[in-house]
Amino acid sequence: MTLIKSISGIRGTIGGATNDNLTPIDAVKFAAAYGTWLKEYSGKEKLNVVIGRDARLSGEMIQNLVVSTLVGLGIDVVDLGLSTTPTVEVAVPLEKADGGIILTASHNPKQWNALKLLNEKGEFLNAVEGAKILELAENESFDFAQVDDLGTITKNDSYIDIHIDEVLNLPLVDKEVTRKGGFKVVVDGVNSTGGIAIPKLLEELGVEVIKLYCDPTGHFPHNPEPLKEHLGDICDLVVKEKADFGIVVDPDVDRLAFISNEGEMFGEEYTLVACADYVLGKTKGDTVSNLSSSRALRDVTQKHGCNYEAAAVGEVNVVTKMKANNAIIGGEGNGGIIYPESHYGRDALVGTALFLMLMSERGGTVAELRASYPSYFMSKKKIQLTPELDVDGLLETMHKKYAHEDVSTIDGVKIDFAENWVHLRKSNTEPIIRIYTEAKSQIEADDLADRIISEIKEIAGLS
After folding, report:
1. Which of 8, 58, 83, 106 is catalytic?
2. For 46-70, what is each residue's pLDDT tens digit?
3. Averaged pLDDT, 62-82
4. Is residue 219 part of a domain?
5. Does the annotation mark 106 as catalytic?
6. Domain boundary among 371, 400, 415
């Protein structure tokens, strides 16, 4: 069992001993730390926080604990109940709230849950803010409200519909256009809140929806991470139903993957590529993804005569770079679409609408669309190192070895070669170096990863 405390929140497995798992005591302690920080950060006497959760089995229990803790601190709560991560992000500014908490472990299996923390803009906290909350939780420096000053709870289950309306009102989304497409789409909602939100949105866009695992029971029918090896059922159903494509989301609906009309993965990396292709065809501007995302976004961005830049891995880093560059679209290669015209957060509802607009206007099949983009293949491996080894020193040596190439050191070491790239990152919690590569064939990507691994092992004296 595991409890992971990080600047972006706290996540862990349900059950077991305190401080080693996400027990009720740990949930209360971390919620109290967030509420205490929010009171200090805002300087306000009365605060309002939005809370929502995915459908996982422990969600209601964790939500009751978190909501009651905030009320005990004198903070008013807007309880969205079953929701999605982007829906909570949208709700925070609409409610003029001081912050928000999303109760979800994202793509992790059912035994996991987590508290994801937002600021008053509905955006994830930065490293300094997250570190302060960890410090407060460690010291248990809490001052709860007197009985006359307790917070209140307001339930509002309308925000998924409000979120859908916000998507439909985007300038580049036109439901009259998508309705003419006559699309038939299979949706895998992994029995979480995507099974509520995505079909509702598609029906508003005039799409015939075939639901697969869209009952929000929290009993995930397969590993909830939207990867090829977990998605055999929807791939088969798309072909059987002669659907135009399939849509897969993770439990909190911030990651989006498509299945082609041929029952093949469109590729999570290409979700952002396709959405950016549509947006850049309408509005020129910069794009941003993280260093471990596909080069295909750069290629498509340049095709439209625009500029691409990479950020350090992590949604908050991508958002920071997007704001600095005034980027019009960005995200991460895991199927996360960030479209500032809506909000600065990964949003599968926004991505779905943009993709439908692209397909409506371009015509053809999803398989043909995928074939029209530059084809890249990735390899993701890691090296287990002994604790006494200097990982930073190893990465610096690799940097010097390839200093004649195009090298970035904003997040580990990324080496851009003419035809491929490799990204080396160290784990913050264990002596591991992660090696991501991309090339124009799977064999080439794997060979590049194996070569770099051999070089690192030789330097470390492990070969």
Report:
1. 106
2. 999 999 999 999 999 999 999 999 9
3. 98
4. yes
5. yes
6. 371
